[in-house]
Design a protein that fits this description.
This protein is mostly helical. The protein has 13 helices and no strands.
Length: about 240
């Protein structure tokens, strides 16, 4: 059966349409803000290749503040590091070769990954690709529209679009990170304190990167959880193997 005709893919596609529309609006804002900083071509290329809202806005925020390319790339990379554990969780659900897992992984975004989660820690990767399918072209198209409309809009600050940077990351923080418990709240506050302390004298981009030290608070907790959950996870995998056999 063709992937496009697969019921899971089609279900994911329909589920992804509302998110795709929101992505178009957000990427249009990215294009408007990125045009004065990066020029006309670079924002569109970035959306085509990187396709990660948090990383793109993070890198743009560093560049807009006067930071260099290395600091911008590092900030974007740190913001995208969450995809490493997400990919590790997704991998076992993709049957076939490592090359196939690599290609399917390129269609993983936060929304589609979360929507594809199923019981027992499994993922419906066809649903995931379907949910991503309408969002990707609209993200790139929205960036192009924003770049082209930038000259018509004029100064983004005049419309308050400069507030998008803090609003975007505050939304990410409140919708995900700080909802994980007290330790996450402490990590967020520590990261904010580090950034505020460095802003007056550190080069642009460094406060954002240094603020990631707050995430280290969660490492000990994650390690203890992993150690405690390992026997149970092995048991589940053994049971799954018996069922498949």
């Amino acid at each position: 059966m063709s992937l496009l005709r697969n019921p899971s893919f089609r279900e994911g596609f329909h589920a992804g349409i509302p998110f795709a529309i929101a992505s178009f609006i957000l990427s249009t804002t990215f294009g408007v803000l990125a045009h004065p900083v990066m020029g006309a071509i670079a924002p569109i290329v970035m959306s085509t290749i990187v396709y990660a809202g948090s990383a793109q806005f993070g890198a743009l925020a560093v560049l807009a503040a006067g930071g260099g390319p290395i600091a911008a790339v590092l900030a974007g990379t740190l913001l995208n590091m969450r995809y490493l554990p997400m990919g590790i969780a997704l991998g076992p659900s993709i049957e076939g070769s490592a090359w196939k897992r690599f290609l399917v992984g390129q269609g993983m975004i936060d929304f589609s990954w979360a929507g594809a989660a199923r019981e027992g820690g499994r993922f419906d990767w066809r649903f995931m690709l379907g949910a991503t399918a309408p969002a990707y072209p609209l993200w790139v198209a929205g960036t192009a529209v924003g770049v082209l409309a930038g000259d018509l809009i004029g100064d983004p600050d005049r419309l308050g679009l400069d507030a998008i940077f803090p609003a975007f990351f505050l939304a990410l923080l409140l919708s995900g990170e700080v909802s994980a418990g007290r330790r996450a709240v402490v990590a967020a506050l520590l990261g904010g304190a580090v950034a505020l302390a460095l802003v007056p004298f550190a080069p642009a981009g460094i406060p954002v990167i240094a603020a990631c030290i707050g995430a280290l608070i969660g490492l000990d907790e994650a390690g203890r959880r992993g150690a405690a959950g390992e026997p149970e996870e092995l048991e589940e995998l053994e049971e799954l193997g018996e069922l498949e056999a």
